[in-house]
Amino acid sequence: MIAEVDQNECIGCESCPAFCPEVFRMGADGLAEAYTNPVPSECEEAAKEAAEGCPAHCISIEE
Ligand code: SF4
């Protein structure tokens, strides 16, 4: 599974690292990035929840 953040749409709300810090982090520019790909299998559920919880709908998950 691959997680990706569209930083053109990210509003920097810091929600995704709260859901899944193993995969998402906030960069120095205040925008989220997916830094662990492929997503470890034990983090897949949390990564999906982070994507579903993103208010800007800018996290894509590819199986
Ligand atoms: Fe950006 Fe979405 Fe993560 Fe919020 S949840 S920091 S809008 S990618």
Automatic annotation (TrEMBL):
InterPro entries recorded: 3Fe4S_ferredoxin, 4Fe4S_Fe-S-bd, Fe-S_cluster_ET
The keyword Metal-binding is assigned to this record: yes
Molecular function in Gene Ontology: electron transfer activity; iron ion binding; iron-sulfur cluster binding
Keyword field: Electron transport, Iron, Iron-sulfur, Metal-binding, Transport
Pfam families tied to this protein: Fer4_13 (PF13370)
All copies of domain 4Fe-4S ferredoxin-type, residue ranges: 1-29
PROSITE patterns: 4FE4S_FER_2 (PS51379)
Entry-linked SUPFAM superfamilies: 4Fe-4S ferredoxins
Key word Iron present: yes
Source taxon at top rank: Bacteria
Primary role: Ferredoxins are iron-sulfur proteins that transfer electrons in a wide variety of metabolic reactions.
Protein name (database record): Ferredoxin
Source organism phylogeny: Bacteria, Bacillati, Bacillota, Clostridia, Eubacteriales
